[in-house]
Amino acid sequence: MISLSNIDKYIESRFQRTFILKGIDLKIEQGEFVTLMGPSGVGKSTLLNIIGLLDEDYEGMYDFEGKSIHAMKEKQKSALHKSEFGYIFQAYHLIDELTVYENIETPLLYRNIPSSQRKSIIAELLDRFKMVAKKDLFPEQLSGGQQQVVGIARAIAGNPRVLLADEPTGNLHSSQAKEIMEVFKELNKEGTTIIQATHARENADYGSRLIEMLDGKIDKDLAL
Asked: Which CATH number do you get for residue 207?
């Protein structure tokens, strides 16, 4: 499904190149649950951004379902980005001017999903995450954990085939974190491909594959 070959990402200064990623070769099949682990600054978030088409400033080859990302026109990449990927960030990236309901609705509007269907999807997500009473609140009226829960609901609203999660439970207390990871496990069983970057080893145990990164490279690739 996803194939990265010899991916390099670096910062060029006057006298040297500083590599953020170096020689990354990675294949991820449909339906896998992959965890990227490693110390801060090792390139986990950068790799997620490249996979999710949020960063195009790199060298190497990236194929999605056998099609070269480099060969695609901007319109094709944008359509792929909107239709296939869901994103969960450590910094919530909610839209301050929109309510909880409206934030979750955003990806559904991008996909031109009819109003009645949108209402049904959002009602189910609000119920699933116990946020029904907070649907008309704005992000600033929520705790950090609640904002992250809304971010996760928004990411899965459009039923993406690939869910990218960057430290998805970093701002949640342990019971909420476990609840979110159980949701991920459920989504993965339903066929969603999940790629998460995390420091939490217990989060990795929910997945099927652990990739340990070191100094911008893949150090170990283990089946769980």
From this structure: 3.40.50.300
